[in-house]
Write a structure and sequence with these properties.
Rossmann fold; six-stranded mixed beta sheet; 10 strands
Length: 230
């Protein structure tokens, strides 16, 4: 039986723009299972990033529920929600969001430091994870000394080093060329298949759509299709 990692129940998000209401997410119900390599697909403004932000606890729903590992996010205090984000969710953003004054090693270790993991365990996990993402030997480089693809690999390392329940990747290939995009997708597919890491992307990049094992079409804030590839 598949283990459910995320469950959305009648989820809606409405933004007020003056007197106008923008329904970014409209009554979405969805489950993401352990081991999924799934993509929320749709044009800009379709609601896919809003759904990702609600799952990640970066935004609050107007109505409905977000469940992560059998915990309903709205039931948590701000500090409890911060703990869930720190311990159970990995984030990969299109703009990398690395800390510019930190090395690749320090960026990857940052969340482990926040978790209070001891230095020896940090070192073992970070060095292994950086090697897993193809950055062995580049641990001391800062973001401005790395290519866009290398920076995104650091971001992926930071996302997975904590062994999260799920990695949420918002347009992770948007700022890299097609060759680098394919290499990053090779990496994430390998992590999914060999380590069982669950990935949920928001994307309109055909490279990502072609690789995803599950395509969730989002249109006008609603789920317009959900297809699993064999």
């Amino acid at each position: 039986m598949e283990q459910t990692i995320v469950e959305l129940k009648h989820l809606s998000k409405i933004y007020q723009q003056g007197e106008l209401e923008l329904k970014a997410v409209n009554d979405v119900s969805l489950t993401i299972s352990k081991g999924d390599f799934a993509a929320l697909c749709g044009p800009s403004g379709s609601g896919k990033t809003s759904i990702l932000n609600l799952i990640g606890g970066l935004d609050e729903p107007t109505s409905g529920e977000v469940w992560l590992d059998k915990t309903e996010l709205a039931s948590l205090s701000k500090s409890e929600l911060a703990e869930v984000r720190k311990n159970r969710i990995g984030f990969v953003f299109q703009s990398y969001n690395l800390i510019p004054v930190m090395t690749a090693y320090e960026n990857a270790a940052f969340v482990l430091e926040l978790q209070g993991v001891d230095k020896q365990t940090q070192q073992q996990r970070v060095m292994q994870t950086l090697a897993d993402v193809g950055l062995a030997g580049l641990e001391r480089r800062r973001p401005d000394e790395m290519s866009g693809g290398q920076q995104q690999r650091v971001a992926i390392a930071r996302a997975i080093v904590t062994n999260p329940a799920i990695v949420l990747a918002d347009e992770p290939t948007a700022n890299v060329d097609s060759h680098t995009a394919e290499a990053l997708l090779d990496l994430m597919q390998k992590l999914n298949e060999q380590q069982g890491i669950t990935f949920l992307f928001s994307t309109h990049d055909q490279h990502v759509i072609d690789r995803a094992k599950r395509i969730i079409q989002v249109h006008d804030g609603k789920i317009a299709g959900d297809d699993v590839r064999v």
